[in-house]
Amino acid sequence: MELTQLLNSLHVIQVTGEVQRKDVADIVYDSRKVQKNSVFVAIKGYKTDGHKFLQDAINKGAVAVVVEDDDSIPDELIMHSKIAKLVVNNSRIALAELSKGFYKDPTSKLKLVGITGTNGKTTSTFILKNILESAGYKTGLVGTIANYVGDVKVDSKLTTPESNDLNKFFYDMIEAGCSHAIMEVSSHSLVLNRVYGLDFSAAIFSNITSDHLDFHQTFDEYLNAKKILFDGLGSNSFAIINSDDSNSNKMIKDCKAKIVTYGIADNSDYQIKNINYDLNGTDFTITNQNVDYKIHTTLIGTFNAYDAASAFATAHSLGIDANKIVESIKSSPQVPGRFEVLGNRNKKAIVDYSHTADSLEKALQAIREIVKDKNQVVAVFGCGGDRDKTKRPIMGKIASELSDKVFVTSDNPRTENPYDIIKDILKGISKNNYEIEENREEAIKNAIQRSDDNAVILIAGKGHENYQEINGVRNHFSDQEIALKYLAEWKKYI
Fold first, then answer.
1. pTM beyond 0.85
2. Considering 42, 68, 101, which residue would you say is the last residue of a domain?
3. Which of 192, 231, 295, 430 is 20 to 30 A from residue 36's alpha carbon, by CA?
4. Predicted local distance difference test score (pLDDT) of residue 153
5. What residues contact 471, with CB distance under 8 A and at least 6 apart?
């Protein structure tokens, strides 16, 4: 694609230098990835500023640089290098605009569903993907656990990638024959304009509780970030809203899309009724237009009933037969690290990604509802370093009150001292039912080996993650692998 053609996609303030007969190879924001004929977009990040690497990008063969600050590089150098300097108001929006243009507006050719909320995004995407594929639609996915271009899995580093990576994913999906795509939309990505310009056919709001306040500073800022997704929907789109969340009305206040609700509330378009679950799965009913649909999923708990209901409402709104949806939910596979039950004897370990106060509470409440005080409930958890500190004592309080025994341990401490994180957690614990074991493997081992024979052990916080990040280094660590190891050892002695 020629640079002059690409400029039609961009809201530009000023153009300096040569733009004619310039072929563009790609759009990049990382100067290390610049190659001959790249367009380099200088972004002001949290750790560094891309404007510092303009000279490096030019030396590597960039055909154009995009800047917010006209004075960041002299016009004389631009003219001498025979490239273009494009001055814009917002580099992140420019990156999204250029990427959309370069990859030929890929989401206009897809039925794209975005899912946002504090909890449930990953599970909902997996259920919905299974429904769409069962209905015969080749479907891509962008999310926390992995990205899928059709059936091809691509490792995921961010819940929602940068806009150039996103648009390339969607372009690749089209090339692979996909007609539909589903993505998790994080609050960070909305504020940072990563999803700017994408064409959503539907968006799901799952719920919102306090999270990411290290980034958003206040709950209202966090809520307003989520709201961006719904403010941008067109009149032909669907907004699929959890009617039971107290902030749902705020979320759709300025929304132009067709509003579809799901939840237990009587006025829900897709009403959830009669939820029952055990360690083998969940049964419930969805009522839509006076028709009852009996739902079974191998996923466990009320929160997973909500996730399944959101997928049902979305797929049905997009025109998929309700009875086919019922069968697809029944066959949806276990989502790694989402209330994943391990063990085939009396003692069970449950690995779950619950890393917020709300998700931890719901996971423990689900276990309590299942065991009915007949089984010992043990929790193993820590909190992530360099993240919202306010939730740590709250999570400590929840774990202590809803568990018979708590092992407070390390999660991903990142650059923080693990014991400082643990001290924050302990501020919320008033009961004398906890032990401190900073080593996460030892904590899981102790929980399994020293609990009752019929205990249910929740290992919370990391879920699907197969690493532990300590001082900036990621070391292989899997809660599932460790739990299975010690469950096997425990079985030898019973």
1. yes
2. 101
3. 192
4. 92
5. 413, 414, 415
